[in-house]
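The records we work with from here on pair a chain with its fold. These numbers are not coordinates but entries in a learned vocabulary of local backbone shapes. To see the layout at work, look at the sequence and tokens printed below:
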Amino acid sequence: MAAATVSDWAPDPVSLQQSLDVLRASRSPSTEIQRQVQETLEQYKTLPDFNRYLLYIMTQMPEEDVNTRAVAGIILKNNVKMMYDTLRTQYPDLLQDIKIHCLYHIGDSTQLIRATVGLIINTLMQKGQLKEWPDLIPTLLQLIERPEEATSQGAMWTLHKICEDMHRELCHEVCRPLLDVLLPQLVKLLRHQSSIVRGSALASFNQFILHKPPILETVNPMFLNNLFEIVMDPDPDVRKNVCQALVLYLDVYYHYLEPHLQHIIEYMLGCTKDDDESVALEACEFWLQLTSEEEEAIPVLRGYLPALIPVLLSRMRYSEVDIILLRGDDDAHIADNDQDVRPHIAKSRSMSGATGHAKPEAPTREAT
């Protein structure tokens, strides 16, 4: 994206310095200074040019302290969220400049700025919806394929935030052509060389599983092939998302997992013992889902109980309050309810290095 398409606006040196002074002061621990900063920002936020100064500081001043640049971006994001309709109708050139600069700097050298830019893009997408930025997701998919690591990861992180916050909207009938492109691309990205991209692509894909869009029936074989290729990923975030994907599939696509259920159980048993707590937590969701809804799986699971039960017992965690209550239990003669004995490692599912893990066998169809 060529910077030449941006408007010819240039900052006034005095106004730029005043803006910088306010942003720098916002990090002061002094309550009085913070109060003054808030009063100044309240005055500034009604001035359209102030948003241009914020955009300029965030994207055009790499020599400035990164925290000051990030503060400028967060304030800009909040202003866009509150003033979107005004910007769209009265200052469309400013809104377009924000979009262009954010995409151009999605590969900033600092992760904090990449994340801040992603938040601004996500806010623009939520406020304007697809109809006002229809080429955003295809553009992000192209940027993810760029060889520059920062650009690829920045674009993937932004796409993940959009999928996380807008998965319901993206599953509407009107968005079906876009989803028909997006989901196959996410499946292909499971083989990306960057573990950050792999993990975020899988987390993004997981957002759509429970919605069961029609395209999932087409990509399911390729998805499972690629998923089974990364079950041993050295990045725990990827393994955590693998566990989540299997739990979600168990809920709505059990018939796809049934031929591989024994291998999946062995893999999940290893994940339940994972040293990374986030992986172990997601793995515990699998046992809850398997035993609560899939009666046909119980005979298969029964053979693994001698190995599973000791693992679950060893991973149980009780708070100090739990321990006190258990010690003071005066109803031992009454049978426990399910919630009384459920381990705290098990949490409710939300949409929102596996040494010793058995690797599930991939389906016969070859991944692409």
Observations:
- The chain has 19 helices and no strands.
